[in-house]
Amino acid sequence: MSIPGRAAAARRKQPHVLANAPFRRLWTAMATCSLGDWLNIIALTALAGNLTAESGFQAQSLAIGGVFVAKMLPAILLGPLAGAVADRFDRRLTMVVADLARFAVVLSIPLVGVYQWVIVATFLVECVNLFWVPAKDATVPNLVPKERLEEANQLNLLVTYGTAPVAAALFAIVSAVVTTISAAVPSFTVAATSLALYANALAYLASAAMVFTLRAIPKNHVRHVSAPSVLRQITEGWRFVGGNRIVRGLIIGMLGAFAAGGAVVGVAKAYVQAMGGGDAGYGAVFCAVFLGMAFGMFFGLRLLKGLSRRRLFGLSIVLAGLTLAAVSLIQNLVVVVVLTVVLGACAGIAWIIGYTVIGLEVEDGLRGRTFSFLQSLARVVLLLVVALASTLAALFGAHVVRIAGISYRFDGTNLVLLLGALLAIAVGVVALRHMDDRPEVPIGVDLLNALRGRRFVQAEEPDPERGLFIAFEGGEGSGKTTQSRLLAIWLRDQGFDVVQTREPGSTKVGMRLRAILLDAAHQGLSPRAEAMLYAADRAEHVEKVIRPALRRGSTVVCDRYVDSSLAYQGAGRSLDQEDVARINRWATGGLVPDLTVLIDVPPAVGLRRMASPADRIEAEPLEFHERVRREFRALAAADPDRYLVVDGTLDQREVTRLIHDRVREILPDPVPQEAEEATGTMPAIRDFG
Q: Over pLDDT 90: what percentage of the chain?
């Protein structure tokens, strides 16, 4: 087995990250707290609605909105300060004290039992959370090896959001049981909200006990740090977002989804109560949202894998808006719960695509600020929308419309949900216009093909003599040059007429352009000039070499093509992807390979294969090559039918076998299996280009 193969096998044999006892204890405490947090949200909003139910619809709407304002306000006012202060104290002690404080405050809420204390207690709990969360996030990297940190963060995300439907289901069950007992035993006066808050308090106490016994948290981290204000994060973030069309459309879409979600959150309790759902119905709707999100994240992308992710992002927000419009007009609790699952699924699809696209489109040095900008602006949007939603619902009041003897209740909650739906539809359309990467393909046709499990490909002009076009892509040292040569040799052995070529430099003009593009002396070449020079080489290459070969029925094997420009100049040089794609579509006349073979190798591995940087591209820093690799992988994920992704760390013969197996599927005539044996006898070519 090769060295990379042994390393991969060793990674597979490593125990699960939860086998790490200190991390497992902290993760269990996090799961317990997350469950308590979600119970707290549901119980407090339900309690606020119950305490003000006799004061009328307006008072109830404002009371529920007040809880959400009190919950989000500390993060906006004190978030940066708390993050800076949290790093100046013992993290274990900070988390233990915070858990005990949350235990005491939450325990007091049902004991005091007045609305004013609900608001004060909510504000206090959120202030304490501002210290607990950064202490927890900063502790995780100290408890797990660096190579397992991504896995640990995935588990953290799982318990952060995965406990929401569990908490909602528990609240719905407890509410239903309490209602049943109260009907059978009139003297039983314990409210479901009180039981949920007691359980939440115990969750915080259990977390404090687990963290207190966690002795593996280091104490030598204390340092002075500063954090920008929310306003400054938003200002700096918008400066970057405004210059990137794709990210701008993404942020607009996600913030619009947040705003629509805030409208739902602000009036959900009052809306469910108006339908006679009570606390159990509210818990069911809350649970339906997060169950839908889970379905959307895990199954929605698989169901529509043939659809462009950027296009799916905008469509999912539009569909969420249409679903929310139906929720606002249909006043049947069972139907509303079902529609809420669909709404949550659309939100889940948009959420996972949004975060993935940010991870792929934004370079590493700006990604943290982009996420910080999004989170900060999302807090502001949620705060404003929740406050406005509850206020608007209260001002509009409750109305009954009678038409032809039929009575229909349309109150402030219906109005807010309908406005939220219209907002979601509008921002979904805007996001789609900004991010659509297949404008030439009708959306309806594209969506129908995706539902059938196929990717729609625009029909080209018929060319009966057209040969086969195969392109090889990959980062530096991936081995694509070696594999393209081996494939050309193998195809010639089968009797095919093969034209083996490369970019840049396969024409007389291209040779001169290659000297300019790769010469280390031209380090000052601007990214835009570089992109256009590559496109010029490609235009000459397609016109003089590739198209003539295809017209006479030859098989063209090309080392690099358009996707290299999308990866190197688009992602590597941080140019607008659509601009790079547009230039190259024009340069090539829209010619697309029948198969693109991506040999995927981590840049650190590929660059080690090179004796020394031979050109200006190879001499770029590791971060540049990491961006290039992410873009190659994103392109392959967006078009799986055209791409074959091969692990370049495998043994060279295994890589060759995988490529031949895939190429055999698209060849015009069957290739005998004995060809593998002929390939196996060829000497390895030590060229990792």
A: 16
